[in-house]
Amino acid sequence: MIRRKLISLCRSNYNRLCSSMTQPDIDLGYYCDVSNSSEVKQNISSRKGVGNIDRVLDIYNRLKVIDVADETRDALKQELYRELSKLPNKTHPSVQGHEDDPIVVHELNKKRDFGKHSPLEFSEITRLMNLMRTDKLGQTCGHKSYYFLGELAELEEALIKYAVSYLIKENFKLVSVPDILPKNVLESCGMSINSDRTQIYSLDPIHHGPDLYLSGTAEMSLAGLLMNTVHSSTDLPLKLAAVSRCFRAETSSIIDERGVYRVHQFTKVEMFAVTTPQQSEEMLEYIRTMQEQMFMPLGFNMKVLDMPPHELGAPAYRKYDIEAWMPGRGNYGEVSSCSNCTDYQSRRLNIKYKQDNTTNYVHTLNGTACAIPRMLITLLETHQDTKGKIFIPEALQPFMNGKKYITKNTAIPDLKLTKKTK
What we know:
Blueprint: H1 2-19, H2 28-31, H3 37-46, H4 53-65, H5 72-85, H6 93-96, E1 103-108, H7 122-128, E2 132-133, E3 147-148, H8 150-169, E4 173-174, E5 180-182, H9 183-188, H10 205-208, E6 212-214, H11 218-225, E7 229-232, E8 238-247, E9 265-275, H12 280-295, E10 302-306, E11 318-326, E12 331-340, H13 344-349, E13 351-355, E14 358-361, E15 363-371, H14 372-382, E16 390-391, E17 405-406
Parallel strand pairs: 4-8, 7-13
Antiparallel strand pairs: 1-10, 2-3, 5-6, 8-9, 9-15, 10-11, 11-12, 12-15, 13-14, 16-17
Helix pairs in contact: 4-5
């Protein structure tokens, strides 16, 4: 009982603080124009999103007739912005006509022919070569976690260094980011907090303060870094990159997402770009092309997909996914994506640019440079050898001290469980 009262007190104090903060500058001219309501409804429906434009218009019309001094006005205004914040971004016109399936932009690299050999799955390879542990981890990190061992851990570091070196050559600025963020930053980036479908881990409000959460991706930290800033148009586009741990509370019982394909924490190299509205579509194509050029030397087959509306998260205007062929699993799996969020995040985080004595909101974009577990699945399954070795792509060998193969790990003994007796 005392604990619940303390949590309630923490949240009420936080809510009072939030109520005094400036509201996000969501585009009232568009969403509160009744002539756009059908378009907004169709967008919500096609994206299978949440939000009620009729509710928004009802509150907006009530606000117009309430006296400025009326004490209910502030509460109604708070409700209006809560409802507005639920609405998804607009959808790119060329994507609106997509059906349920994504459009294949192109396919890169051929699938490897294993001949008579049936390729093993990642979990089988790592078990035989003693490269990973996922079982019986309750005493350390629990379900949906892992230990990478020996040369697999080295390959993880090699992938990080490979991706970072590539981004630096492309003039991305590297930033080291925090993994704990406040609620307003996460929600401003489009994440759902404290709902039945949340992906976010929350910290104990009694011991750590109200509404602190573990970051799901460095995109949120990089966006938060730029909160309440104004940039000169001559300094744009701004390209940032970060390496971080990503924490996801989501779980899955889908067979194709077994093993380390979907885990509670993993390392990812992330890209984040800030542009003028005129630059953002070109920047999305640039990020997608760069992802393709970065992945092609790694030697796996992949498909580049233009995603349909229902696959777009709330902030995305347009999104490309890259799916890699995982021969041991016998199917494709997403290893990367990139999105143009236009001014969805910048309006909520107050990120602007100045040009010719006028100030407008920037556009923000994000893209995955390397999500480690899925990339490791792809590489090990693609480059496995029948003699019990894993070929290391030439592009990664300089980051593996010149090693050409991964072999069985003998430095760390196989895990053997013992039964304790009193």
